[in-house]
Amino acid sequence: MRPIVRRDVCVVHATVPSRPAQWRGMTSESSTAEQRPDHYDAFADAYARANEEGLFNRWYARPAVLDLLDDVAGRRIDAGCGSGPLLADLEERGASVAGFDASPAMIRLARERLGAEADLEVADLTQPLPYGDEAFDDALAVLVLHYLEDWSRPLGELRRVLKPGGRLVVVVNHPVIPPVLHPELDYFATVPNEEEYDFDGVSATLTIWYRSLSAMSDSFTAEGFRILTISEQPVSPETPPELLPPSESDPTRFIGFIFFVLEAGS
Hints:
This protein has helices at about 45-50, 55-70, 85-90, 105-115, 150-160, 175-180, 215-220, and strands spanning about 5, 15, 75-80, 95-100, 120, 135-140, 160-175, 190-200, 200-210, 225-230, 255-265. By secondary structure, the protein is an alpha/beta fold.
């Protein structure tokens, strides 16, 4: 079982694919086109419906991120919006949030959830963000970076908008998944894979960049972050049992995402 996650900035969204993706032997030299920032506009509504109560979004990534952040009351947090569920969670816990997403359709859905006055912007993490330096206590890059070949500029922008000592929570697909599913893959290479998914009856193709754990950690430290936590979180204890994968041991723990808490240097 493989989670699928979306590119739009700092978003917690995932769902189980309707059929397994196939490795196509692509390399970093291949001619895979970069996905447009508004790639999700074509299936935003279907995507939001598919993920609203799905295992990987509602019961895995979102609760884990909130657990890692702990008390957020009074903190200013820069988080991607998608259709808005994570921003709503943070606001309920007393945080002041700013949300952004590369998809105008996702911004529309987030406004429907959060209200017309919500601080939401259309913005692409590969470009300068529409915020001042040291504007936030925390930032979230949840299920986004593995859609990018180059992490340097996105991490640099997130470091810029964080106060010294501020936290960045990063969640990506676990790096052990690609070589387990595709033994022919060079674990230490950074390579793209086109994967096809079904979101509530709507088909979509996404490109995910595989990279090693050491490549991830090197990217973090190169942009001025210190790694505070590397975690492999379980699902929420409130997860409906019928959503859990079959397991002879503990179905609440499986290899899906890897979670990092980083600290911005001074």
